Amino acid sequence: MTVTEKTGAKGLFTIPSYYVRIELPNGEDSEYLNRISKKQMLELERGDSLSGYSEGRSNFSTIYDIVADSIFYLASILILGFMAFCCLIASVLSILALDRLE
Q1: How many structural domains does the chain have?
Q2: Which of 19-23, 51-55, 63-67 has the weakest average pLDDT?
Q3: Residue 55 sits in which domain range?
Q4: Dihedral (C-alpha) 62, 6, 47, 56: value to the nearest 10 degrees?
Q5: Would you call 22 exposed, middle or buried from its count of C-beta atoms within 10 A (0-12, 13-18, 19+)?
Q6: What's the whole-number mean pLDDT along residues 5-9?
Q7: What torsion do the CA atoms of 54, 58, 61, 65 make, to the nearest 10 degrees?
Q8: What integer is the mean pLDDT of 58-73?
């Protein structure tokens, strides 16, 4: 995929983020910006090729997108799983405590 635009963003309390817009196989520019690493940002120029994965002819994801999304989803599942486990333990302990009172 060919890089058509490079940009960066920095929030007040966040680290810099780097993005590129690419040209899709159907010849149109991507609707979304794809996040890349700082190293890629420094190495890439407009017109360079960027490796990644394409779903059909209208979507594109870089390795960075896939890894970042996977880490986010995995962390969310772990946090929710831990909370569910804590609720289960609390329920079991409360049942045991009620049985002792009877």
Answers
A1: 1
A2: 51-55
A3: 2-101
A4: 30
A5: buried
A6: 87
A7: -150
A8: 80
- pTM (whole model) above 0.90: no
Residues 6 or more apart in contact with residue 63 via CB below 8 angstroms: 51, 52
Chain centre distance of CA 56: 20
DSSP the chain: -EEEEEEEE--SSS--EEEEEEE-TTSSBPSS-EEE-HHHHHH--TT-B---EESTTS-EE-HHHHHHHHHHHHHHHHHHHHHHHHHHHHHHHHHHHHHHH-
